[in-house]
Amino acid sequence: DNKDKILCIADLERAASKKLPITAREFYNSGSTEQITVNENSTAYAKYRVRPRVLVDVSKADPSTTCLGRKVSFPLGVSPAGLQGMAHPDGEVATSRACARKGVNMGISSFSNYSIKDVRKAGLDIGPISHAIQLYTLKNRELELSIIREAEAQGCTAIFLTADSPVLGVRYNEWRNDFRTPKGLSFPILKRTSEMIQKQTHDDQFMSFNDDAHNWARDIPWLRSVTKMEIWIKGILTAEDTLKAIEMGCDGVLVSNHGGRQLDGVPATLDALPECVAAANGRIRIHVDGGVRSGTDIFKALALGAEYVWVGRPVIWALAYNGEQGVDVMLNTLYSEFKRCMQLTGCNSIKDITKACLGLVRSDGPLARL
Ligand code: FNR
């Protein structure tokens, strides 16, 4: 039935909403407190218009680029969002297979419902793929080190150190719905069986792990001393912290506000991106996630200086809609939207996507050049 055909990410969100029980749906979709940041992450994209160049031969337009040491089909990857097993029983394993099939990379959340080994193997069975292991600064250093060693053993390329979560953001839905991880799901990376999780309170489930004493001086040199994997800081929103990441010798920063799930009222990532790009001045890699819902959004983020873009919720909706095939649909949709956007703006390669491709909408006059 054509009416139900999935044509865009909004269609996937609607299809997923019909399938997910309210507790799961709100857990996935919500941001913290007033929902300002989660909403602004997406609406920030609407402030920009694309400035197309016409009559350009775009018959050989090539959206491919590189990310985490590997050629990728286009500049998009799947962010490390946890609990994918609640959206579909195949969870992160399905995501990994679909990412490998499309030729893009994936972040593995510490709260993955499958082990690093299972997720890596599932992808590699299909084709080459780079994985980043998402890490929190844990109170339990032994556990943190064992995750690092396992990620190395399984061939992960990078650590995404999530820096925005010394404590958990306030998400009202989780309290109102008394959100609990469903029975049968475990967190193998954190060595928590389903039975152990069922005995914990809501707060314990997520925050018994994280160390609110984490800091640049203690944690980054330590990470550097124990691993050769790339070290990326996930959750940067300012020029100051971009400079700090450079000073600490990190390999990259992921401009992110955790999909609006940590502190509400921080800027949309697209609005934080330019100051981070300016501060970096080419000295550190810059990726971004948050609110990306179309190929044109990816294009805009690149035009503002990001090298690569990641998506969280779209993969959750895709899994809920139809597991691995759903993730195929999601990635294929964003790929064709992005390639078409390149062609319709006269861009033949990723390096053609520059500031000149965008203008900022003004309420009181013509488009402002950047
Ligand atoms: C997340 N995110 C996240 N980040 C992280 O570093 N560790 C984690 O375990 C999780 N878990 C998680 C669960 C769910 C359900 C969501 C929606 C998000 C944040 C994620 O990596 C990413 O930053 C955002 O999802 C990006 O925003 P969008 O694309 O969801 O708008």
TrEMBL record:
It holds the Pfam family FMN_dh. One of its GO terms (molecular function) is FMN binding. Its cofactor is FMN. FMN binds at residues 80-82, 109, 134, 162, 234, 256, 289-293, 312-313. Glyoxylate binds at residues 136, 171, 258, 261. Residues 1-363 form the FMN hydroxy acid dehydrogenase domain. The active site is at 258 (proton acceptor). GO terms for cellular component: cytoplasm. Keywords: Flavoprotein, FMN, Oxidoreductase. SUPFAM superfamilies: FMN-linked oxidoreductases. CDD domains: alpha_hydroxyacid_oxid_FMN. Gene3D superfamilies: Aldolase class I. Belongs to the FMN-dependent alpha-hydroxy acid dehydrogenase family. PANTHER family: 2-HYDROXYACID OXIDASE 2, S -2-HYDROXY-ACID OXIDASE-RELATED. This is Oxidase FUB9. It comes from Acrodontium crateriforme.
